[in-house]
Specification:
heterodimer; A: about 150 residues; alpha+beta; Immunoglobulin-like; six-stranded mixed beta sheet; three-stranded antiparallel beta sheet; 2 helices; extended; B: about 110 residues; mainly beta; five-stranded mixed beta sheet; 8 strands; elongated
Amino acid sequence: MPSRRQFVAAIGGLAAAQLLPALASAQPDPFAPLIASFTGGAPVRQGRVTLDIPSLADNGHAVPLLIKVESVMSAADHVRRITLLSEKNPRPVIATFHLGPRNGRAQIATRVRLNGAQRLMAIAQLSDGTFWSGSAEVVVTTTACLDDS
Amino acid sequence: MALARVQLPAAAKRGEVVEVRVAIKHAMETGFRFDNDGRVIPRNVVTSIVCRYNGDEVFRAETGSGIAANPYMQFYVVADATGEFVLEWIDDAGERGMERAALTVTA
């Protein structure tokens, strides 16, 4: 007959084994399918891409945003494409930018609409075919509401 | 006719990286809003913004309803020859717009 201690350990292990995968699958990465359609399944490394956005945005209808990619922007080594993804917008691909060596600097600023506090991600494809990503969290006070009429 | 604007320095040295700012006057209607009679206001957003420098494409953005009304883009370009900078855009309704700016490059 198992001791009380063994019994408790066994029950605890069983509960953890059942709970952990459930927790992991309860929150799938919302970016995964979007990233796959942009990269075609190629691996994405973190880094080189900086997403500059106010941590608190008062008005979700127009949030200033800056995307910077570390690149020398030469003919041999430059940024080809950058895509900007949103976690909560009804259309999650905000924009895709096409750049080249003639830009001289891989930096883009624009204004976006955001449907609530969320994480944004930018993925850059370099001329050597590698993909790099950067992300930023933003809290939005007034969302760009869907039912705003 | 919608308005658009291209801003860049009037003159630059050869090889200098200059800042280009473009803005388009456009409502960027999302298609998620309703009018006073409860009908959906059809989506009409700028879907493509292209910039050409002396005929060569130097910047292109595929945009959607996630870009704020009156889309604004700021980017950089290497000033390598005196010439013309052309911004072209198109929206869901098929309306197109074009705006030009001149750039003088000094040695």
